[in-house]
Amino acid sequence: MSNTVQNNFQSIWNQILNNIKDNNIFDEPVFHSYIKKSLLYNVSDDLAVIEVPYITDKNFFIQNIDEFNRLLSDAFDRDIKSQIVLTSEISTIKKEEKKDFIFEYGNKILDQYTFDNFIQGQSNQQSFAAAYGCAYSKEKSFFNPLFIYGNSGLGKTHLLHAICNYLKDNRPEIKYLYIDGNDFISLIINSLKEKNTDELIENIIQLDYLLIDDIQHLAKTNQSQELFFNIYNKLKSNGKQIILTSDVYPSELKNINDRIISRFTSGLSVSITSPEFETAVSILQKKLEGRNKEINISEDALYYIAHKFNEDVRKLEGALNELLFKAIIYNPPVIDEQFTIEMFKENPIINQNDELTIKKIKKEVCNYYNITQKQIESKSRTADIANARHIAIYLSRELLDTPFKRIGSEFGNRDHSTIMTSYDKISRLLKEKKVYKDVISDIKRRLGLVA
């Protein structure tokens, strides 16, 4: 509770005390003995908390509770009931308030996000296994921290909610906090304003699990980073589990202190990438479960959506919802591929062939060097294949600003340091040899980026 709010309550209480004194509602000796030292600690909805120093004062207020309820109701112009507490009991109330305050920001868990309905595929298998392991393991910490990274809409938030739902159902003794990165910063900023950061830290380090979604928002303030660093170290030293998500690999986070990044990379970092075709189809089929009688949709229609909208799960689900809505309007006998193509032909979001992706870059580089995609992703060090791989990696980074770790996952799950080496090599050769400039220009032309 803020000092301003408390001051407002006390101002009202002082008016009530003056009313009691001026109108002789209680005898003067009684007023000075039992009432004068009282405080109005809080008013929430229809409950007022009155603070008194001694047990004799508390007994007096309880005996005359109806009168104090009337005075408070008149002052607030609504029915108010009173709770009388001793000053010695206030510290306990403050601790509970701080916990409630924290959970106002966090633990907004969605029940529908579980491990059971998370569709697994090559693009997310590792992140699923790590998340499930963290929830299931009864060791003090499984992978600490667990850092899940990938573009928006690929399932990171689903996994964090799934962890919390698993803990709630299977390990009810576990104390956890799920919080969005922006809300975490708001929580910290508020504690700094109220000068109660020590209480905030004390409450958070009592947790068994701290889950922060989109930790990249920590870059917004240096004070938030300092406080997070303190919380992180205390949780880690106590063997508590920390689980974080971000849109990029830890070492590629911008404007975050190096000592924090070094701690992120000390645990396990796993990526989620765009769902491959088979996984995309499974996601669509999962969305249609139990609706077979009301929706007549062909496999070809699902395949079309899976092929065109597999950049992320949200686009897949959005495209399916749009198609089903249009089917209600036009009422086709069956939602087949032809109907699906017709419904999306003028929709700009379907035109993903015009979007530049790593897959498209790899395809054009492979065509240019007359090699296969399997070869460019292989471990082969043959000059032509290795050179093509380096150039595709360079273009993926240069044209899309894709994190090195994510590029590595698209090129045979290579380590991000290997990808950085490839990028640096082509960057150097472009300065030294004109032939590389010509090759890059030719491939950009094939990609439709230059005339």
From TrEMBL:
<dbReference type="InterPro" id="IPR013159">
    <property type="entry name" value="DnaA_C"/>
</dbReference>
<feature type="domain" description="Chromosomal replication initiator DnaA C-terminal">
    <location>
        <begin position="357"/>
        <end position="426"/>
    </location>
</feature>
<keyword id="KW-0963">Cytoplasm</keyword>
<dbReference type="InterPro" id="IPR018312">
    <property type="entry name" value="Chromosome_initiator_DnaA_CS"/>
</dbReference>
<feature type="binding site">
    <location>
        <position position="157"/>
    </location>
    <ligand>
        <name>ATP</name>
    </ligand>
</feature>
<dbReference type="InterPro" id="IPR020591">
    <property type="entry name" value="Chromosome_initiator_DnaA-like"/>
</dbReference>
<feature type="domain" description="AAA+ ATPase">
    <location>
        <begin position="142"/>
        <end position="276"/>
    </location>
</feature>
<feature type="binding site">
    <location>
        <position position="153"/>
    </location>
    <ligand>
        <name>ATP</name>
    </ligand>
</feature>
<dbReference type="InterPro" id="IPR013317">
    <property type="entry name" value="DnaA_dom"/>
</dbReference>
<keyword id="KW-0235">DNA replication</keyword>
<keyword id="KW-0238">DNA-binding</keyword>
<comment type="function">
    <text>Plays an essential role in the initiation and regulation of chromosomal replication. ATP-DnaA binds to the origin of replication (oriC) to initiate formation of the DNA replication initiation complex once per cell cycle. Binds the DnaA box (a 9 base pair repeat at the origin) and separates the double-stranded (ds)DNA. Forms a right-handed helical filament on oriC DNA; dsDNA binds to the exterior of the filament while single-stranded (ss)DNA is stabiized in the filament's interior.</text>
</comment>
<dbReference type="InterPro" id="IPR027417">
    <property type="entry name" value="P-loop_NTPase"/>
</dbReference>
<protein>
    <recommendedName>
        <fullName>Chromosomal replication initiator protein DnaA</fullName>
    </recommendedName>
</protein>
<keyword id="KW-0067">ATP-binding</keyword>
<comment type="similarity">
    <text>Belongs to the DnaA family.</text>
</comment>
<dbReference type="InterPro" id="IPR010921">
    <property type="entry name" value="Trp_repressor/repl_initiator"/>
</dbReference>
<feature type="region of interest" description="Domain IV, binds dsDNA">
    <location>
        <begin position="328"/>
        <end position="451"/>
    </location>
</feature>
<feature type="binding site">
    <location>
        <position position="156"/>
    </location>
    <ligand>
        <name>ATP</name>
    </ligand>
</feature>
<dbReference type="InterPro" id="IPR003593">
    <property type="entry name" value="AAA+_ATPase"/>
</dbReference>
<comment type="subunit">
    <text>Oligomerizes as a right-handed, spiral filament on DNA at oriC.</text>
</comment>
<dbReference type="Pfam" id="PF00308">
    <property type="entry name" value="Bac_DnaA"/>
</dbReference>
<keyword id="KW-0547">Nucleotide-binding</keyword>
<dbReference type="Pfam" id="PF08299">
    <property type="entry name" value="Bac_DnaA_C"/>
</dbReference>
<feature type="region of interest" description="Domain I, interacts with DnaA modulators">
    <location>
        <begin position="1"/>
        <end position="99"/>
    </location>
</feature>
<dbReference type="InterPro" id="IPR001957">
    <property type="entry name" value="Chromosome_initiator_DnaA"/>
</dbReference>
<keyword id="KW-0446">Lipid-binding</keyword>
<feature type="binding site">
    <location>
        <position position="155"/>
    </location>
    <ligand>
        <name>ATP</name>
    </ligand>
</feature>
